[in-house]
């Protein structure tokens, strides 16, 4: 099949062996006892299944995996954490840069606007003081013109409202500026500078992202520019009142312009909800969208609570950010971890409860049918996927996935669908799946119109290809275990064609 190299410990590897295979070879070299057939077949099956079960067993349970820390259920230096951190940090940096740019513009405008409002507030103070210099000059003018002084006029309601609105506008502007400065400090902590790429760093990134969601960081940052806009609105209302008191015509004109501006602002706020592709929006529309979308998500599919345990958090990262990633390289690397013997059995079972096996089957089909110039890299990836599927196949609850894997168009439909180097492994996996589907206690899927029943044996058309000849060929050391297990189970419990193979 291929040349072999010898490792430092004397272990022999094929040059095309994948990472999962090399790790598995180090962990599983227990020979099966030599007994006469067919009684030996069942004993071999039991022995090999024991070896397979021990490969991924946690420390303390007698597993061959060895001295792994009980508290650490994922590999610290796995490549998947680097993939996750690169993607998460890139998104966080892009979002933080966008927020920082908006905050910089906001602080500049808030400073200029606060200076303008301050001058109006200082000028309006004279209208609120009965003994101000302006009122004293008015009384002097009345004495010179009429020879008497009229009773002091009461401070008008418009003056009180105008001054109050401007003071409130100044306060809101200053408060939003303080919030903007604090927000920039929050964003500096949102993107910590680190060059480490281990599981602990991935969990810390996960905590930052989840805490920002839990404490509504996005909505709080949206409130900062909204406060400045509210301050501008208060200032304009006070300006309209003062203008109308000085000159009703100017006041009505200014009021008309303010109403038209408010209408435009309202339209820009509502457009994103009517036409989602519209580039126009306001902080109010972003705030409403964030709150309503969060509420809809909570009603439809409750978001998972924040995982305070590191292993639980890494498990959520592994499934949501890697298994469900839109990037094929991330998915392939995640299933490489599943294929490793040291991958914790607890998380294999957890993934089986979700749609990870279906994702794996889809990715296996895509990788097997895709054209590539690097055949070695493709074969290594396919090998990792088959090893991961072998782990999933141990769980009899995957009735639908197992049946789908044998349908036309899937790599498991025939034992020779994949490259020659992978056929022994594929043979063993397919035999395992067929045996599981033949078990009497396995629930049967209802028949589907137009789709043939799931095969429960090797097809007669496969027999002329003489699959049994593989037993006399050179097989990768890491594939022999699965090939022997599939052959022995077929010999002991299989249907006629599988037994003949």
From TrEMBL:
Residues 1-36 are annotated as: Disordered. Residues 12-30 have a biased composition (Polar residues). The chain crosses the membrane at residues 98-122, 165-187, 220-241, 253-275. The keyword Membrane applies. Keywords: Membrane, Transmembrane, Transmembrane helix. Residues 81-242 form the DUF6535 domain. This is DUF6535 domain-containing protein. It comes from Ephemerocybe angulata.
């Amino acid at each position: 099949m291929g040349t072999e190299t010898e490792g430092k410990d004397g272990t022999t590897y094929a040059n095309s062996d994948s990472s999962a295979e090399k790790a598995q070879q180090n962990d599983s070299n227990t020979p099966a006892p030599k007994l006469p057939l067919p009684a030996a077949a069942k004993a071999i099956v039991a022995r090999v299944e024991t070896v397979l079960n021990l490969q991924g067993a946690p420390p303390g349970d007698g597993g061959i995996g060895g001295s792994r820390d009980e508290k650490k259920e994922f590999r610290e230096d796995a490549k998947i954490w680097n993939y996750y951190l690169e993607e998460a940090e890139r998104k966080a940096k892009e979002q933080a840069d966008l927020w920082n740019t908006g905050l910089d513009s906001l602080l500049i405008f808030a400073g200029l606007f606060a200076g303008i409002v301050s001058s109006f507030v200082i000028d309006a103070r004279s209208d609120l003081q009965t003994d101000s210099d302006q009122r004293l000059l008015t009384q002097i003018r009345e004495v010179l013109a009429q020879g008497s002084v009229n009773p002091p006029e009461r401070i008008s309601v418009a003056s009180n409202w105008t001054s109050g609105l401007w003071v409130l506008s100044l306060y809101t502007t200053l408060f939003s500026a303080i919030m903007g400065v604090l927000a920039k400090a929050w964003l500096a902590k949102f993107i910590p500078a680190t060059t480490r790429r281990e599981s602990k760093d991935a969990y810390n990134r996960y905590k930052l992202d989840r805490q920002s969601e839990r404490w509504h960081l996005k909505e709080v940052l949206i409130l900062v520019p909204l406060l400045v806009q509210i301050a501008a609105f208060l200032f304009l209302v006070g300006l309209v009142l003062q203008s109308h008191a000085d000159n009703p015509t100017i006041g009505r004109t200014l009021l008309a312009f303010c109403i038209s501006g408010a209408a435009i602002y309202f339209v820009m706020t509502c457009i994103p909800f009517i036409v989602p592709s519209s580039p126009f929006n306001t902080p109010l529309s972003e705030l409403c969208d964030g709150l309503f979308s969060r509420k809809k998500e909570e009603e439809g599919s409750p978001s998972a609570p924040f995982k305070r345990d590191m292993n639980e958090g890494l498990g959520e990262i592994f499934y949501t950010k890697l298994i469900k990633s839109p990037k094929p390289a991330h998915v392939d690397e995640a299933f490489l971890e599943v294929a490793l013997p040291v991958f914790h059995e607890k998380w294999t079972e957890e993934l089986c409860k979700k749609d990870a096996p279906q994702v794996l089957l889809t990715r296996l089909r895509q990788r097997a049918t895709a054209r590539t110039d690097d055949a070695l890299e493709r074969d290594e990836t396919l090998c990792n996927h088959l090893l991961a599927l072998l782990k999933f196949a141990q769980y009899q609850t995957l009735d639908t996935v197992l049946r789908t894997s044998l349908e036309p168009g899937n790599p498991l439909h025939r034992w020779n669908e994949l490259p020659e180097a992978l056929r022994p492994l594929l043979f063993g996996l397919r035999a395992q799946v067929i045996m599981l589907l033949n078990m009497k206690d396995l629930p049967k899927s209802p028949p589907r119109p137009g789709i043939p029943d799931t095969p429960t044996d090797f097809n007669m058309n496969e027999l002329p290809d003489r699959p049994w000849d593989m037993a006399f060929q050179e097989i990768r050391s890491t594939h022999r275990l699965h090939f022997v297990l599939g052959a022995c189970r077929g010999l002991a419990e299989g249907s006629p064609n599988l037994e003949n193979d």
